[in-house]
Amino acid sequence: MSKRHYIFGYGSLINSTSRRLTGIAGDSLAVRVQGLERTWVGWKGMGMRAVAARPMLGACCNGVLFEVPETELEKFDAREHHYVRVQLDLAQVDYLEGAQALTVNAQVWVYLYNHQEQGLVSAPIVQSYLDVILLGCQEISPQFTLEFIQHTLNWEYWHNDRHRPIYPRPQSHAEAEQLDQLMAKQLPQAFTLRRLAP
Predict the structure, then answer these.
(1) I want to staple 96 with a disulfide (CB 3.0 to 4.6 A). Which of 30, 62, 64, 78 is the partner?
(2) CA 62 to CA 96: how far, in whole Å?
């Protein structure tokens, strides 16, 4: 039996519109992966921070599994070129929101933090990127959105760039006020320090 390939998306790939800008992507399953920690990091040349996952005992990270044809993996590799794609053990996966478990012939991939590429630590979190992630989380449920916020580290240094998006795949939406209210409630200190991007 041939392998079916899935990607675990834990940032912008949670958003169905965003991932389909890159390649063919099936419907998603909401999951929580044990042993991964999500944090904000910056890389040289990006001008912004992105979320990245790294192995960490006792940590967990929510996200989605979505199926991709094997021939499409190289497109996602190009999008996630700052990361390293590695195979994820199905035993680490907890299924959420009534999602059905994958079969044994599933091969799950995850893009992990590449320590060799780290740099630009002064880069900001940009709202245009965060909006894409939060809108993707809201496709699943409010609780899923809260879990993303609560299980992501390093929220300092944050810019509101909605007027001139830095993120290359921004998403037009009318939810700015709603998202701001959510962030102000969940991350009051970090949100208060958010600055308007140049």
Answers:
(1) 30
(2) 9
Full-model pTM = 0.95
What are phi and psi for residue 170, nearest 5 degrees? -70, 160
What region, left, alpha or beta, does residue 40 occupy, with left being phi > 0 and alpha being psi -120 to 50 degrees?
Answer: beta
Question: Could you tell me which of 83, 111, 102, 103 has the C-alpha nearest to residue 28?
Answer: 102
Compute the average pLDDT of residues 170-180: 96
Q: Using alpha carbons, list the distances in angstroms from residue 83 to 41, 66, 94.
A: 11, 18, 23
Q: Where are the domains of the chain?
A: 4-196
Q: Which of 167, 170, 159, 169 is CA-nearest to residue 198?
A: 159
Contacts with 164 (C-beta within 8 Å, 6 or more apart), sequence order:
197
The CATH number of the structural domain formed by 4-196 is: 3.10.490.10
First to last CA, the chain: 54
The DSSP string of 114-180 is -GGGB--TTPPEEHHHHHHHHHHHHTT-HHHHHHHHHTEE---SEEE-TTS--SSS----S-HHHHH
Please name the residues in contact with 154: beta carbons below 8 A apart, sequence gap of 6 or more: 39, 40, 41, 49
Q: What is the pLDDT of residues 184-197, one digit of tens each?
A: 999 999 999 999 99
